[in-house]
């Protein structure tokens, strides 16, 4: 009896256990279905607060760690200030006389409040030389840079070149981190690069992309400047306002370009950005340091692109190269025997398939340098050795004059700083002080006025004021210039 009861108990226990298991499964199954449905209807978003360390190793050459570590400390935030400037109602030789009746405020509008701007810069020398874009600091009253270590330093403008949109700044500091130059010629389409800068005031931002194209002409510098050089590196690294003047580096952290522009209809990044190649940057900086001015070499020929229709029209045998429309008299191209109709295909062995590439190659040289030009004439390849010249068809280099202050007729005339020249958009002048003790006091001229022209003569430096005024025998001489706030003015001065 006991045995039968035991066996029956075991059987009942097994049946009960199986029922509980099946029931529990069904409950869990139904619960999971409900949970999924609820999740689909009401997605749950949570913070991912688990701290987990990753031991994954990205192969060398596929990550950007080294490049970021090398370049980020040497990229600075460039802060600019533009003070409110009074502007003139209009300028005419009658203004001095009208001002005599209506007072010194004649023609002056109320000044606007100060405005701020920002961009980026790259330290290229440990003693404080910084490269940026010309448009970042153009016409700024004050320039400061914020270092990666948060130090804030005042910067002075060493020089600038609007034709390449490059400017050189100097801060009073030493032992600074630097980025070394890389060779932009070695960049390959599809190669990884990173952009380092300060977009939207987000300091030390690093973005990555690939080289999308080289030698790109986007007509951003040529507006009003026929001498501009455009041969940009195009990338798809994200660049936004504030990145201008920042570094474009390769995976070694070497500087291969200065980020300059974006292709956008909104003002923000829309897929492509453009950088000035380091080959151009290094030459411009070297010129500014050695000569104070950029030494621009010219081939001496007007050129144009070759497309299929033009090649057919001119019966050309190639679509690769740059067509010569005409050559300038007394130019290097003329003296070397180049002619209208020739097609230039290489400069010193570097192939040039379009105008931007040709201009970039020539921009690397100075007046007086000789280059080997490979070209096609009637389908046959030839070579010419061209001596490059400057805009005046001379091989002379232009050096910034070391202008000295002078005293003349009781006033002191001082040279104008590079920063003031850039701010006011002038190429030279002489700043007057001590007006109240001079022969100029009766004109209404005030201290700080920068003389840029005396009659038809340009004033580039203080010595020009004395030279031009001494040559005037008698009569009224008109002096033209500008005040530091941007107000332009004319003053008559009588000579007996």
TrEMBL record:
**Listed GO MF terms:** serine-type endopeptidase activity
May I ask which residue range the UniProt record assigns to the signal sequence? none
Q: Quote the InterPro entries the UniProt record gives.
A: Chloro_Bact_Ser_Proteases (IPR051201), PDZ (IPR001478), PDZ_sf (IPR036034), Pept_S1C_Do (IPR011782), Peptidase_S1_PA (IPR009003), Peptidase_S1C (IPR001940)
> Domain of life here?
Bacteria
| Keywords, ordered alphabetically | Hydrolase, Protease, Repeat, Serine protease, Signal
The residues annotated as the active site are 135, 165, 244
**Which biological process, per GO, is one annotated for this protein?**
proteolysis
- PDZ domain ranges (all copies): 288-352
- Protein name according to UniProt: Do family serine endopeptidase
Please tell me the species this chain comes from.
Pontibacter diazotrophicus
| Residue positions binding substrate | 81, 135, 165, 242-244
